[in-house]
């Protein structure tokens, strides 16, 4: 199954010989609230819920941890840094994270990583040690080490800040006046060098921030969309976005912010940030979520992490997709704090009981569709009515577990609201499952230094307005700008005539998959049949697309000679211009794609190559990562 530990709940009920009965009974329940309460009662009855949030972990005796750390110190002093790092790790596994033993082992391992050139790992351990029970009189060491690692990673501004804190903490150091004087002088020299580097960088570079604007301005009813588009119903695809004016390649058609987002990797946990960060700060209580700075940490605590913190370990141990489960809880807590429990339950109950017009779904009472509105996000397409009974039961079990963790942490939910909250968690899980986990083509990501074409998703994000765009295996819009940003800009990559529907891709494109594979993917993952032109006309995959112009694929024969000449020019362009410089030639690429659009029958290799160049040139990746193994 595509969900981790999918049989966690069903196997217990199978052993009790009641699973078939459970599925039959659950399928009879029409109300989401009743399905949740049925599942909750069932898990209570079969003693499948944990009795306490206390984690019964037996740590080795502190003497053993200290002994291991001292062995690591001996290896470190002998300059066997990799071996010492392994011993420090063993010391950590035998220490309680709240103890000084643990903090000392972390700090010592950070020193080993620094000498090994593993600067990111060094910084992570330094940040964790800073948040733990590390002795104040030694704190200056951590900040000086952080400064060294940050300089090596070209984080000069941060290194300067670390050195400054180091100098303030030096007063607490237990060392002779002479040693303190020498140490202070060395740190001041390093700080001065950082300032010189920053000054030189400011003189050498002048940052210009390009402001992106929606073509035609903002849409009157959907502010994240262009004024040159509108929502309409279509027979095959339901609600979709259509052009009311001609849209050119490069025109911005949407600028959307996620309603909710959560990190997959080293990304700030705060919903309003989600910035990729090298060695971020961890939460000092749970040690499981990270932030780029203290402001983001404080904002996230206000948004609900103070309620999530005591239970996040258990949420990450729950079956399914752990990051999606965590994001569902984060969503609920943010809106619970905004609205209060009574209003929250009233809104979700009204939504579940009302019949919403497919055309106006997600719009508020004054006819606005806004990505920061709870009901706009809550009314997005979800898989709840399409998934099989075993998967629906699985999601209900996850919601029961998560709500149970909250209650064990002293979160008060009156019985009156239990079914509503639980059913809303199930609904949120199904929205995230369809729109975030599976449809993550527009999520923040980073590229690999070794291969710019490979990207790695760094966060799960829910974009309510971008979700209005239907899928095509031949999209005419694509994400643009810095690919790691949480704000997502969508640009046209093909000419879009008035009256034409705007399409993005759900990660399925005709050049890479044949029709049968595409249709299966659309059906199995997104529960629809694709009616795009490549599927209707059964376009071939890239290797079988025509390479040459001929009488069959030239639409306008009076332009045949001009098109042929421009195609030769384009082939020369592809040979002479490095792909990383394509963004400097976007106007040329736009003009060529427009020429082919009106004069050549698709599919045609040069058209597809130009389209790929435009899409890549629109996307910028300044946050590249390298692939390295941990020692």
From TrEMBL:
Residues 227-507 form the SET domain. PROSITE patterns: SET (PS50280), ZF_MYND_1 (PS01360). One of its GO terms (cellular component) is cytoplasm. It holds the Pfam family SET. GO terms for biological process: methylation. Keywords: Metal-binding, Methyltransferase, S-adenosyl-L-methionine, Transferase, Zinc, Zinc-finger. GO terms for molecular function: histone deacetylase binding; N-methyltransferase activity; protein methyltransferase activity; S-adenosylmethionine-dependent methyltransferase activity; zinc ion binding. PANTHER family: SET AND MYND DOMAIN-CONTAINING PROTEIN 4, SET AND MYND DOMAIN-CONTAINING PROTEIN 4-LIKE PROTEIN. This is SET domain-containing protein. It comes from Macrosiphum euphorbiae (potato aphid). The lineage of its organism: Eukaryota, Metazoa, Ecdysozoa, Arthropoda, Hexapoda.
């Amino acid at each position: 199954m595509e969900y981790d530990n999918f049989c966690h709940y069903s196997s217990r009920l199978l052993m009790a010989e009641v699973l078939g009965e459970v599925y039959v009974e659950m399928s009879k329940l029409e109300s989401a609230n009743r399905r949740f309460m049925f599942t909750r009662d069932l898990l209570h009855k079969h003693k499948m819920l944990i009795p306490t949030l206390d984690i019964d972990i037996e740590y080795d005796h502190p003497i053993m941890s200290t002994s291991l750390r001292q062995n690591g110190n001996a290896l470190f002093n002998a300059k066997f840094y990799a071996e010492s790092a392994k011993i420090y790790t063993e010391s950590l596994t035998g220490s309680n994270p709240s103890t000084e033993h643990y903090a000392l082992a972390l700090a010592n391992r950070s020193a080993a990583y620094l000498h090994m050139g593993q600067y990111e790992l060094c910084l992570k351990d330094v940040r964790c040690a800073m948040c733990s029970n590390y002795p104040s009189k030694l704190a200056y060491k951590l900040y000086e080490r952080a400064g060294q690692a940050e300089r090596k990673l070209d984080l000069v501004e941060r290194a300067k800040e670390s050195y400054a804190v180091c100098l303030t903490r030096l007063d607490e150091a237990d060392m002779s006046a002479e040693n303190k004087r020498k140490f202070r002088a060395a740190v001041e020299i390093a700080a001065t060098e950082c300032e010189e580097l920053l000054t030189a960088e400011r003189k050498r570079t002048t940052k210009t921030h390009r402001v992106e604007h929606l073509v035609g301005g903002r849409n009157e009813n959907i502010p994240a969309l262009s004024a040159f588009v509108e929502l309409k119903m279509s027979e095959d695809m339901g609600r979709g976005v259509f052009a009311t004016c001609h849209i050119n390649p490069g025109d911005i058609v949407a600028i959307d912010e996620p309603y909710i987002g959560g990190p997959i990797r080293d990304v700030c946990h705060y919903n309003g940030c989600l910035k990729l960060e090298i060695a971020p700060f961890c939460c000092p209580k749970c040690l499981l979520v990270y932030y780029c700075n203290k402001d983001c940490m404080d904002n996230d605590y206000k948004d609900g992490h103070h309620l999530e913190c005591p239970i996040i370990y258990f949420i990450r141990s729950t079956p399914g997709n752990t990051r999606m489960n965590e994001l569902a809880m984060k969503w609920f807590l943010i809106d619970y704090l905004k609205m209060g429990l009574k209003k929250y339950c009233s809104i979700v109950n009204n939504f579940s009981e009302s019949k919403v017009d497919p055309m106006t779904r997600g719009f508020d009472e004054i006819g606005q569709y806004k990505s920061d509105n709870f009901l706009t996000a809550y009314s997005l397409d979800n898989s709840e009515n399409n998934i099989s009974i075993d998967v629906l039961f699985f999601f209900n079990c996850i919601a029961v577990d998560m709500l149970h963790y909250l209650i064990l942490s002293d979160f008060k939910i009156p019985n009156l609201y239990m079914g509503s909250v639980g059913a809303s968690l199930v609904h949120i899980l199904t929205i995230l499952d369809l729109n975030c986990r599976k449809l993550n083509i527009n999520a923040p990501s980073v590229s690999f230094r070794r291969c710019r074409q490979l990207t790695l998703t760094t966060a799960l994000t829910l974009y309510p307005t971008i979700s209005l765009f239907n899928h095509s295996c031949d999209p005419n819009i694509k994400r643009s700008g810095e690919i790691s940003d949480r704000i997502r800009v969508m640009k046209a990559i093909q000419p879009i005539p008035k009256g034409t529907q705007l399409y993005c891709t759900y990660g399925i494109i005709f050049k890479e998959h044949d029709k049968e594979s595409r249709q299966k993917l659309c059906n199995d993952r997104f529960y629809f049949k694709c009616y795009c032109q490549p599927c209707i006309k059964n376009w071939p995959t890239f290797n079988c697309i025509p390479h040459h112009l001929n009488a069959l694929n030239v639409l306008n024969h009076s332009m045949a000679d001009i098109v042929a000449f421009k195609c030769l020019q384009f082939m020369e362009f592809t040979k002479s211009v490095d792909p990383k410089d394509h963004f400097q030639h976007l106007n040329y690429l736009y003009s060529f794609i427009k020429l082919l659009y009106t004069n050549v029958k698709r599919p045609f290799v040069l058209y597809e190559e130009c389209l790929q160049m435009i899409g890549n040139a629109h996307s910028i990746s300044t946050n590249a990562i390298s692939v390295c193994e941990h020692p």
